[in-house]
Amino acid sequence: MGHASSEPDPVGADGTDAAFSALLEDSVEDLYEHAPCGYVSTLMDGTLAKANATLLDWLGLRREDVVGRMRFSDLLTVGGRMYHETHFAPLLQMKGEISGIALELKATDGTRMPVLVSAVVKCGSAGEPLLIRTTLFDARDRRAYEEELLRGRKLAERARGEAENARREAEEARRASEADRVRLKDAMAVLQQSLLPATLPEVPGLEAASYYHTASPDRLGGDFYDLFPIDGKRWGFFLGDVCGKGPEAAALTSLTRYTLRAAALHDPDPVAALTTLNTVLYERYTAAGGDPRYCTAVYGTLEPDPGTGRVHVQLASGGHPPALVVRTDGEPVHVRTPGGLLVGIVPDPRFTAATTTLAPGDTLLLYTDGLTEARTGPDRALYGDAALREFTRTVPDTSPSALIGSLSGLLESFGEGLDDDTALLALGAPARPGADSPATSSGAPATADPCPAPATKSPE
Fold first, then answer.
1. Among candidates 344, 359, 361, which has minimal Cα distance to 281?
2. What is the reported pLDDT for 448?
3. Which of 76, 112, 169, 347 suits 92 as a labelling partner, its CA being 20 to 30 A distant?
4. CA 396, 398, 402: angle at the middle one, nearest 5?
5. Please, which residues have CB within 8 angstroms of residue 225's CB and are 6 or more apart in sequence?
6. 447 or 206: which carries more pLDDT confidence?
7. Contact in structure between 17 and 38 (CB atoms under 8 Å)
């Protein structure tokens, strides 16, 4: 059974045909005049023979003012005319065509309009040039885009330049800072050394050694020590630690050292010397209503006996960790001075004296709390007095120089656990070959304290 096809006719076919018909009926002249670009025809000398309405509208010119009266170069800016005469026209004459040349038109109101120009020479049947047909495309959007790109590039170059300048300035500042730090470090090292004796004096019948460990080269410490003559038989010594760090601590250290040396010459008694120092510090700092400044110190006298080789020691302490005597039998004991207060805190402190005798081979060790308060082990526990006694007991050679060498190695092994400066001073009676004299303290054999008092903390 046959039936009609269900395929529909093309939708809008009549309308489409009408649109094409209208397009075909469009005037060629109208297409030329109102094209989206400028058209111009010139004679070979550049005289304008024809221009479309689009170009005239761009320039704000009338046709009668242009055709036969102006040359193509008259439509251009001054720079455009120069380029046209030196490059555009010669190149067109040589090649017969040219395209994509960027020029600028100048309108009657003075505004400039960027265009892209293409031109071709029309020749006659014999090949002779007759006229030039030129097309001009509006390049304002392109120019704006190019200018935006150029601005972006300039901004990027400026930012890169500023970043490079900032990097260079930062590098110069870092180098200057590093140089300043080195100079400051050197100056602080020199100042630190000025607060300590350059070398210890040679004392007949006595061996002495010292060591100073700086925890940080950027911080000026306040630990100090000295060994000096009092009279023909006795020698004075001291070791201590002032409160604080930096220049203030250095000034306090200098005052403390010179006060103790002067006090020893006036009255070498250890208690009297510490009392004099306390008076000076208290009146200068605490009593004056300023920032209280104080220190801990051990001060004492040494009297070597040439006949027996022994050294008689008398000392007193002001809030400082007790001195440690390492005997020839290897058992170290502390020389206790209970009740000694910090020096410079109160006007009338109580200082306690103690005496001991070093037999040949015995060594008296003085130290600041940087040693015993070092942090060790995974739990960062304090090293402590007990560990120090055990260390000195196991050292094979306890002469002053050897003991200081062993202790300096111990300090280095603490690494970052040692965060405070440490001063060491070891004074010993030189061992005599074949001699084995018992150690005495205040005329009696010295024994370790069965109930040792906790070490007094030195000022930070």
1. 344
2. 37
3. 112
4. 90
5. 196, 197, 210, 212, 237, 238, 239, 240, 366, 423, 424, 425
6. 206
7. no
The residue with tokens 């130290």 is 367
Q: Which conformational region is residue 123 in: left (phi greater than 0), alpha (psi within -120 to 50 degrees), or beta?
A: beta
Q: Say if residues 364 and 323 touch (Cβ distance below 8 Å).
A: yes
Helix axes 384-394, 400-414, angle to 10 degrees: 130
pLDDT digit string, tens, across residues 123-149: 988 889 999 999 999 988 887 887 888
What is the amino acid identity at position 16? Answer: T
pLDDT band per the 50, 70, 90 thresholds, residue 71: very high
Q: By mean pLDDT, which of 57-61, 168-172, 252-256, 267-271 is the weakest?
A: 168-172
Could you give the angle at which helices 270-281 and 247-266 cross, rounded to 10 degrees? 140
Flag whether pLDDT at 451 surpasses 60: no
**334 burial type by CB count under 10 A (0-12 exposed, 13-18 middle, 19+ buried):** buried
Location of structure tokens 């930096």: 246
Note the pLDDT tens digit of each residue in 271-280.
Answer: 999 999 999 9
Residue 89 and residue 59 in contact, taking contact as beta carbons nearer than 8 Å: no
